[in-house]
Amino acid sequence: MRKPLLAFLVSVCALTAQPRYDLLLKGGHVIDPKNSISRALDVAIAGGKIAQVAPSIPASEARRVADVKGLYITPGLIDIHVHVYAGTGIRAITGDSSVYPDGFSFRTGVTTMVDAGSAGWRNFPDFRQRVIDRARTRVLALLNISGGGMDVDGEDDPADLDPEAAARMARQHPDVIVGFKTAHYNGPGWLSVERVVKAGSLANMPVMVDFGTVNDIRNLNTLLMDKLRPGDIYTHMYSGHRDELIENQQINPAMIAGRKRGIIFDVGHGGGSFYWFVAVPAYRQKFYPDVISTDLHTGSMNAGMKDMIQVMAKILNMGSPLEDVVRWSTWDAAKVIKRTDLGHLDVGAEADVTVIRMDKGRFGLVDSAGAKKMGDRMLVAEMTLRKGDVVWDLNGRASQDWTVFPYKKRPRASH
């Protein structure tokens, strides 16, 4: 009698047991650069965290199963150069040229955005209240060394380039400020660069430099060898505006020397900072990115740049393996901003996940000038998870068929 009773109790427990996982991504190819993984594995999620990454996790152990066979499962994409300080009513990057993060991030596979200098030390509290704290997207910030950020007053006033004030603001918001930025400085000499580096040193954070144009005093060699520190970021690396290429389409030796010093080179595509005539020769000389980013704003998103996943496709089509493209968009980006809690699929990590489809065919890829280069692969964001929630699902892979979906009965309308 005991054996039948035991079997009965086991069967009852099996029927009443709750599934271990909230969601199972099944049948995909995991690319997790931090852990040197690139192979077929399932990913299970529970309580908003990565619960298991393993082959052949039983579907019966999850409440929902998303069939991602033939797709790539990666950490949530990190775009370290965006402009999302929207809603101010100002006709500037700080305002109308910025994009609200949630309206753009998830559909492009991005779970973390780093605003690059739209706000400065004076108006950052407004940026945080207006955008950062209201977004489902994780929004971090590189604080502009100019107090008003990229507003209509510009970024040239020496009295507004205050490293002590910037460092103090960063210390007040350590959860979201990850560094500093200088851009669009039109004054002579090195004032903005020197002051942003001082802020970075005071707060022990990296800086990102949009260098503007070069002249006899302001040149790449001095910037990369004398002014910036190892770990600081040179954005718009394929712009061609700053002598990144010299005669005979050769990479400027300062770029090579800067990389050896530990300077980080960022794509920062933008509306006017990525050109095939620079990127292709640089690639032929094996001068690859350290990180991939968009320089997202209303101008770049509606022109050649488009979105993060397409910028990644451009780098892919110049010859980099997908594993490198993912690494430069996830784990390496996380390390650059010193947020190593992000950019990987460690068990226990917050479940920010992107599922990518790679299509093969003929695709036109457009640079900032509107010039086209043909490619044979295109990347598409199929699914995006933020804290384990499905926030973008292009083809309803985590959804139930409508014929079995448990619709809630709606009350009859009264007239």
Q: Note poorly predicted spans.
A: none
| Mean pLDDT across residues | 94
Strand content: 25-35%
Shape: globular
CATH architecture: Alpha-Beta Barrel
Explain the overall architecture.
This protein has 415 residues and is of the alpha/beta class. It has one domain (76-348, 357-376): Alpha-Beta Barrel (TIM Barrel), CATH 3.20.20.140. The protein is 24% helix and 26% strand. It contains eleven helices and 17 strands. It has helices at residues 2-16, 124-130, 163-172, 191-203, 220-227, 253-261, 276-284, 298-301, 308-317, 322-329, 331-336; strands spanning 21-26, 29-32, 37-40, 42-46, 49-54, 62-67, 72-75, 77-82, 110-120, 138-144, 177-182, 207-209, 233-234, 264-265, 353-366, 372-386, 389-393.
Give a short synopsis of this structure.
The protein has helices at residues 2-16, 124-130, 163-172, 191-203, 220-227, 253-261, 276-284, 298-301, 308-317, 322-329, 331-336; strands spanning 21-26, 29-32, 37-40, 42-46, 49-54, 62-67, 72-75, 77-82, 110-120, 138-144, 177-182, 207-209, 233-234, 264-265, 353-366, 372-386, 389-393.
SSE layout and pairing:
Layout: H1 2-16, E1 21-26, E2 29-32, E3 37-40, E4 42-46, E5 49-54, E6 62-67, E7 72-75, E8 77-82, E9 110-120, H2 124-130, E10 138-144, H3 163-172, E11 177-182, H4 191-203, E12 207-209, H5 220-227, E13 233-234, H6 253-261, E14 264-265, H7 276-284, H8 298-301, H9 308-317, H10 322-329, H11 331-336, E15 353-366, E16 372-386, E17 389-393
Parallel strand pairs: 1-6, 2-7, 8-9, 9-10, 10-11, 11-12, 12-13, 13-14
Antiparallel strand pairs: 1-4, 2-3, 4-5, 7-15, 15-16, 16-17
